[in-house]
Structure formats: C-alpha cells, structure tokens
Amino acid sequence: MSKTIIVTGGAGFIGSALVRYLIEHSQHKVINLDKLTYAGNLESLKSVASHPRYLFEQADICGSEAMQKLFDKHKPDAILHLAAESHVDRSIDGPGTFVQTNVFGTFTLLDTARKYFAKLSSEKQKEFRFLHVSTDEVYGSLGETGYFHETTAYDPRSPYSASKAASDHLAKAWYHTYGLPVIVTNCSNNYGPYQFPEKLVPTVILKALAGEAIPVYGDGGAIRDWLYVDDHVKGILAALEKGKLGETYNIGTNNEKNTVEMVTAICKLLDDLVKEPKVKNHVDLLSFVKDRPGHDRRYAIDANKIKTELGWQPEESFVTGLRKTVSWYLENKSWCENVLDGSYQLERQGTV
C-alpha cells in the first residue's frame, strides 16, 4: 500500500540513501525534510529529484510552527527521523548545537507528531509509525569481548552520544506516556557512497588520492562494527514495516575492524584501483595523531533480534561493500569536489 513518508535529514548520508531506496523500490511518496546544514547535500539526490513521488522541504526540526504546517500539509503516514548532528569530533568542539538539534529537535518533532496522531481516525492511527533512527554509541564502550544488546544499559561518553541517548529516551517516553507508535533503531558505523568527508572512510580515500597524510587517532586500535549504508536502509524499512511498537532493534553486521585494519583495507583497494596514484603504496601515508578525547575503544552489535524477528540480513560483506564504496568515490570525484568547496576542507575536528 502506498504511503506518504516524511524522512527527516533526507539530504544527509543515510537519509539520502533511504530516500533514493524508497523512490526506486517502493510506491511511497517521500517528503525529504532537511535544514541543509553543512552535511546536507541535495546533489546526493539528483537521481530522484525530478521524480513525481519525491518532494523536498527545507525546514528546521526545532521549529514547532514549521513542523505543524508540514504535518498538516502532507498528512504523513510515517515519520522516519534521521535528522541529527552526527559527528563526534564536532560535538566536542560545539556541544550546544548537538543538544539543540538532537534533543530539542527530536522533542519538537515528537510533540508535533503526538498532536497530529491524536487527530487521526482510528484506522489511520493503526497504520501510523514514528521510527527514530539512532546509534550504537549510546551504549558506551565495550571491552575486548561482548556485544551491545537492545537491553544494554545506556552509557554515552561524548556530547554526540549523550544527545542521541537523550533523543532515544524521549522517543520511548512519547510511546509509553502518550501512546505515539514509536520504534527505535540503533545502528553501527555506516559507510558507503555519498558520505560527508569528515567521516573516516571518505577522509581516508580523499587524503590518499591527494597523496596526503592519512590521520589515524591514537594507536589505531579503536574497533567499530562496519555496516554498509544500503543494508542499514533495508534494516530501517524492516523495522518500519514489521517492527513491534515501543521496541528497539539493533542493526549491525559483526564486521569488526580497528582503525588501522580499516585504513589498510582501503589503501589496498586504492593500490588496485587507482590508475595514476600519487604514491605506490597508499598505506605508507598512515600518520598517527593525538587521540580523540574520551575515545570509545570498541563497539560491537548483536543484531540477532532484527534478524530473527524481522527477517533482516545484510546483503553486503565487508569486502564487497568496501570495494563498492571505494569504486564509487573514484567514479564520483566531482561530487567530492563540490562538497569540499564549502567550509569543510578535511581539517581535523574535536581536539579540544
């Protein structure tokens, strides 16, 4: 059945992947709601921009009146809430923005949805969903063993993860207190095409292509579970379509790599794929720099719940997903150049 879906943050990395997938693989009408901060890029949506089921609305989720007007105008059947400030290093430099967008913005969106939901017919209420997309960083840092489960106690360590933890709690509170049909997903580290260059994978690729030093924090031993963005999108939609109200679903792939392993894997692909490299062995560009303050050592997700209950499985292996990603950046240098024409030029963030 065709629905009208508002995707907040739809011009961002994961949001744009979600919008593209919905337009290309469903009959749903998609409203892309994005403020267009530095990380929002409509170039990521060129392939669907003229589609009759796609519409872009530029607005700030912190604006109560603007959100009310958008809900009244589009009458959504579902909200997929991805709009957020998302970079840990930036949250160290400027935590206030993260609290404003991730906490107050989520509150504003939830409360607008609550008022809208209350006016819906009983049939429409049965179908309505508010899916809140979050991160595994809310759980804190793991030791050498163990995994994050949906029941793991929250223990955020950075301004970013603390703001996302707060937004998760708000979403669950609006379910329990007001009966808003909320579902929460928490994902591991995403990578893939169209990712803003402040994140590790595109930074490594672009630094290596330029023959510049590739910064590796600390000893390079911080471990993350790596999730290809299109697999994440499919997990979000599985939760939307089949998830139980009030539940949390962790989305991850058990592709644990530390920073050195991840950077080395990218460099080896670049050695194979770049026709006229600036250096013979890209791994020689590795440069160890001062670690991020409060850097969490290890994240790892147990995704058995979404696999067993909702039937979701990742389709990309680490090898296939990373090769697709590196190849995309090599084939889309103009996108990277256009993004880097702005205020961000691959400089280090979050050093305090």
List keywords for this structure.
352 residues, alpha/beta, Rossmann fold, seven-stranded parallel sheet, three-stranded mixed sheet, globular, disordered C terminus
Write the layout of secondary structure elements.
Blueprint: E1 4-8, H1 13-25, E2 29-34, E3 54-58, H2 64-74, E4 78-81, H3 88-93, H4 95-118, H5 122-127, E5 129-135, H6 159-178, E6 182-187, E7 189-191, H7 200-209, E8 214-217, E9 223-228, H8 229-242, E10 248-251, E11 256-258, H9 259-273, E12 286-289, H10 304-310, H11 318-331, H12 333-340
Describe, in plain words, how this protein is organized in 3D.
With 352 residues, the chain is of the alpha/beta class. The protein has a domain at 4-192 and 226-254 and 295-315: Rossmann fold. 42% of the residues lie in helices and 16% in strands. The chain has 12 helices and 12 strands. The chain has helices at 13-25, 64-74, 88-93, 95-118, 122-127, 159-178, 200-209, 229-242, 259-273, 304-310, 318-331, 333-340; strands spanning 4-8, 29-34, 54-58, 78-81, 129-135, 182-187, 189-191, 214-217, 223-228, 248-251, 256-258, 286-289. The strands form 3 sheets. The protein has a 7-stranded parallel sheet, sandwiched between helices. Helix 6 links the parallel strand 5 and strand 6. The longest helix is centred in the N-terminal third of the chain and has 24 residues, at 95-118. The radius of gyration is 20 Å and the shape is globular.
Short structural description:
The chain has 352 residues and is an alpha/beta fold. The protein is 42% helix and 16% strand. The chain has a domain at 4-192 and 226-254 and 295-315: Rossmann fold, CATH 3.40.50.
